[in-house]
Fold this sequence. Notes:
This protein is mostly helical. The protein has one domain (12-133). It is built from 6 helices and no strands. It has helices at residues 13-43, 53-60, 63-85, 88-95, 97-110, 116-133. The longest helix is centred in the N-terminal third of the chain and has 31 residues, at 13-43. The two termini are 13 Å apart. Residues 9-16 have low confidence and may be disordered.
Amino acid sequence: MVDLPIPNPQSAAGRIDLKTKLLTAFVVSTNVLGNFSMSWGLKHQAVDLGLSPLAYIRLIFTPWVLLGTTLLILWLLSRMMLLGWADLSYVLPVTSIAYVLSAVLGKVFFGEQLTWQRWLGTLFIVMGIIFVGLTAANTTKQEPER
Length: 146
């Protein structure tokens, strides 16, 4: 049986660490833009959806909803890769910046009203991201290479 090496984003310090940061940025971007596109497509659709499943199936193939779906599929696949590179306790808090960016996009593009409680919650998310971002991305002990 062949033992495959376990990728460790903390080894080869700068290069792989940069790769983890870039993938994290990609995960966040595809999440935010995918949800934004999906929301835009659903809010600006010209069809009365009602309870007709056929109307929803047609809506799936409109450009904005299709773009949103594609971006969210990319988000899922890239997030799976990121979870293979870094600890769950690092990935989830750091990628939660997507919630903050989505709230800002909702305010700017959809005119959503954000109460002071939502802004306060958003501030807590940002503070948590900062605290977690200051830690190592991978603290799990890796088996020594053979």
